[in-house]
Amino acid sequence: MVSAAKLKGDEGRRMTAISFNNWADALNGPPQVVEDATFEELPQRSLIVTLQSDKGLCGGINSFITKSVKNCVAALQKQGKEADIAVIGDKGRGQLRRVYPELIQVSMTEVMSPGNFTLASALASELIAAGAGDYDAVVLMYNSFKNAATYTQMYKVIKPFSGEGEDEPLLAYEFEPDTKSEVLTDLQEYLLTSQIYHSWMDGAAAEQGSRMTAMENASKNAGELIGSLTLKYNRARQARITTELIEIISGASALED
Length: 257
What we know:
Blueprint: H1 2-20, H2 22-28, E1 32-33, E2 45-51, H3 61-78, E3 82-88, H4 90-99, E4 104-108, H5 117-129, E5 137-147, E6 150-158, H6 180-256
Parallel strand pairs: 2-3, 2-5, 3-4
Antiparallel strand pairs: 1-6, 5-6
Helix pairs in contact: 1-6, 3-4, 5-6
C-alpha cells in the first residue's frame, strides 16, 4: 500500500515534468535509447551526468546506468574523444569510483526526495560551478519509466548555445533589452535545469517501480524458502516420532516375549 502510493506520487511528478519539459526537446531533440547507441553524435569533449540512487534494494537501477556509462566512455575513447563524469546518487558514485576514479569531477549525494524543480535547479548550479559550461556537451544518463516492472536507459545531449554566422543559435529571435549573449547564458542554465528535472523525475518513478518489483520478488522468494524449510522440518519431526513409536512398540513386544 505504501509503495503503491509512493509510485503513484512519482508518476504524477513525472507527468508534470514531461509537460514542463516539452520546450526543451524542441531545442535539443528527444532523448535517445542507450542500448546499441554508438555515441558518434557527441562532440570532442563531453561531461556525462548520471542520475542514480542513494539507496539500494531497487533491482538493476544503478548497475544498468553504470554499464551505460562504461559503454559510452569506451566508445568515446575509441573515437579519440574525451569524457568526464558527474555523479548524482551515492550508489552510482560507489560503482563508478571503482572503474573511473580519475574521470569523476563532482558527485552529489543525499539529495532530498521527492524531488522538485528547485532541487533540480540546485543540482544544475552545482554542475555549472564544477565547470559544465566548459564542455562541448552535457550528456544526461537516466532510467526512463515504462511501467512498474519495466524501464529503459536513455540519454540526452545538451549542447551550448554557440556559433557564428549560419550556426548562430536562435537567429529567428530578437533579444531586448539585454544582449543576446546574456540571455543565452541564462537560457542555457534554465535548459539544463529543465532537462535534469525531467530526467530526475523519470528516473525516480523507474526507481520506485523497480523497488516495488524487487521487494515483491524478495517476499515471494522468502515465502517459498519458509515453505520449503517448514516442509523439511515437518518431515524430520514425523520421522523422529515414527522412530520413537517403533522403539516403544519394539520394547513392549520384547517384554511380552
